[in-house]
Design brief:
This protein is an alpha/beta fold. A hairpin with a 6-residue loop joins strand 1 and strand 2. Helix content is about 25%, strand content about 30%.
Amino acid sequence: MRSPFFIFPFLLFLSLFSRAQSVHCLADRYSQDALFDSTDIQITTGVHYATSMRWPGTQMDSLRMDIYQPDPNIDPLEKRPLIVMTHGGSFAAGTREGMAYYCMEMARRGFVTATISYRLGWNCSLATDPCIICQGEAPKLRVATYRAVQDHRAALRHLVHNATDFGIDTAFIFVLGESAGSIASLSSVFWDQSEADAWCPTCVSNVGLLDTAGNSLTDTYSIKGVVNHCGAVTHVDVMDGHQIPVISFHNDPDCVVNYGTAPVINCLGCAAFYWAAGSNSIQARLNQNGVCTQRHTRQELNHCTYYVQPLLKKATCFLKDVMCDNCTALNTVEDFSIPDCAAGGTISIDETEPENWVRLAGNQLLLKPETKVSSVQVFDVSMRLLTTISTNSSTIELPSSLRGCMFVKIDAENHGTEMVKWCNF
């Protein structure tokens, strides 16, 4: 008979291992539906996390983040998983406020979320056609990408260092990015310094090492999973040797960040900029490596137009499945059904949820003919109401006078609510 002095430590190990896997595998939390009202979420804006030289140039940028967390007076949990979010904009435009809606919705589901500013600009104006005007600046785009990774890692160090202040469980850190922000997030997760140096030999001399820019903090961390919205890795090889699950959402075709492997900003055959491996290539390599991954495809020639509500809900359940040690590989095309993970890990797919009942086509929203519209509201990226549209039509004209990227919220009596991201330049 084996000694009880051996059995007890073994059982203790199993208990601790199980607890590490299940501490956030909680019923009703981190699920497809919100747990908290928006009024229950504390928002701390303008948190300074780094000061870095802009490049090109010598101006110093003060980099800040906004942090969303369930009110500690309401939420019984002392520590919560963290999601760090990074906006898009071709490394030349965009603001951290562009991820405000995503931050709020994920915080309402029980996470701590942060949206970060990062250094922008590479001598290319997006008001012109980058493929025509900016080809000569292509080497600077590599430095701008590397620079964004520096800032992303500086933000992570700051959040880990100050985890107690914001109720963060540093054992469960996730990242979410959109477009360029997803390229930065994926590179931050998968790059080591040698891989970054091989990809951009001039970057260290221009802006320094990956992990020493912006602040002097030395806190370490590990990433448990990635939400990739229309982003890419610089090469699929950088994912080798990592066991980090990734869920991807992507248009096919997409000429800004390709669904497969191609140059970024590849519209009209432009091949001046660096090659990157998009969501299709990411899934293929992770499947080959035996890493849990999901890919959800919208078949539309566009960039980053996967429906907001299915994206949020699928992503939340994916992260919960990771925390519940229940991650399942999945590949869908034009499937906007909603998973049910309220009980703890995804147990079913509710195919009765709103499917493709609203579609964005230029400056028009095209609804299914039987849709009974209750209201249509247009918000800026900070979720400030810009205008309300009154209509009973299944074709809704969006106001062309509004410029930039916005969210359009459509409430329908027979379909529920959908949020569509609309950009008009």
